[in-house]
Every structure is written in structure tokens, then in C-alpha cells.
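User: Second chain of the day. Same drill as before.
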Amino acid sequence: MDATCLCNRLRCLAKDYDEGQTHSLIHALNCHLRDLQALLTQSESLSRKVQYRVTPTDQRTAKVLTVESVNPFNLDQVCERFNEDADSFWISSDDAVHTELRRRLACVVIYLRSKLDVKVWVPPQIVSIFQGQQNYAELRHSGRKYIKIAQKLGGLGSLLWLPSEIPPST
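Assistant: Same format as last time:
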């Protein structure tokens, strides 16, 4: 489909919307938007003058898919270490895998406690993880995102298997 044809069809659809015709444009729109984004990325002066931004919806997904796979040996070590004493899981350590799991699960705990309308979102065992933190809203938001990811993957246990390179803002 050439650009002139696409532009005319877009103008017509903007004036007189038709769901069926709109779906037939998906491939052509994706191609044109990808090319437009490449053009705007290459020309800074053009990018400043254009009043719109083109950002792919799968940009964050692409970032997540580029991370290294999880090393089950490290996770197994953490599980064995706290198998008999789960309370010590919340105590600080030098192990990077343990520290990341602790932070990730603490965000989930903060989110879940906020949903229960408890007065204290952060229980005493978790406060030390986020020393100096005054506002826990960002951590709560990260916890909500982790739960959404876990639900899509099949359950809360999948949080243990997420690569540690996935940022909390995901």
C-alpha cells in the first residue's frame, strides 16, 4: 500500500470511522509508524519540530526479553539457605540473588498490605530493606506490577524465577 493511499484512507476513517476498515490497516500502520520513528530518531531537528512522539508499545517487553536467563543454581542455594528458617530471609546479606528476591517480595508485601487497608504498609521485618525511604508509594506500585507479571506467568511462585535484571519499574 503506498503512502498516498494510506494517508487518504486515514483521513476518510478519521472523519467517518469504520471498525472493519480500521483493522485492515494494522500492518500498514505498524510499518509506517516504525519508519516514522526511525526518521525522527535520525533527525533531531525534525524531531523537535514534530508535535508528536512515536513510541512502540512493545519497547519495555523487548527490554525484558533481552535479559539473561535465570541460573537455577543460585535460586536453589537461596531456597536451601532459608528452608528451615524463613524469618531469616528478611535479614540483609551479601548475596545478590537473595537481595533481589528480598526486595522483589518486599514490594509485593507492601502492595498487598496496602490493599488490606492496614495502617502500616511496611512491616518491621521489611523496613530495614528500604532504609531512608519516606514514601513507599513507588515500591507499592512495583509490587502491583510484579503481581500482574506473576498472574500472567501462572502464579506468585513465578516471581522467584524472573531474571534479576528486570527492573522494578517494569
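DSSP finds nine helices and no strands in the chain.

User: Great, on to the next one.
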